[in-house]
């Protein structure tokens, strides 16, 4: 399994967390922020990002706003009230997953991280 497959499985959590930290973002901005935060190690493609954004929107976790910026139309995404609640749930789920993976791959090591 490549890191791309792992990234795809975490994409919704990444999107929700970034939108929690930033009031609103558009798709390209999300991809660039992930690239920046990971020093280029994680690259989210449009083919992965937009289906994830649309799914989160359909689930009522994101709302959208269209704005005209420099003769371009941008679709901004932001968290709904339900989305704000879901961030905590997704982060707890991710934290538990990573802790369990640590137990499996390195049973003697106590996890020392904060998600």
What does this structure look like?
- It holds the Pfam family PadR.
- It comes from Algoriphagus oliviformis.
- Residues 15-87 form the Transcription regulator PadR N-terminal domain.
- This is Helix-turn-helix transcriptional regulator.
- α1 (3-21) crosses α3 and α1 (3-21) packs antiparallel against α4.
- This protein has one domain (3-105): Arc Repressor Mutant, subunit A (Orthogonal Bundle).
- The chain has 115 residues and is an alpha+beta fold.
- A three-stranded antiparallel beta sheet has the order 1-3-2.
- 59% of the residues lie in helices and 16% in strands.
List the helices and strands and how they pair.
Elements: H1 3-21, E1 25-26, H2 27-37, H3 46-58, E2 62-69, E3 72-79, H4 81-105
Antiparallel strand pairs: 1-3, 2-3
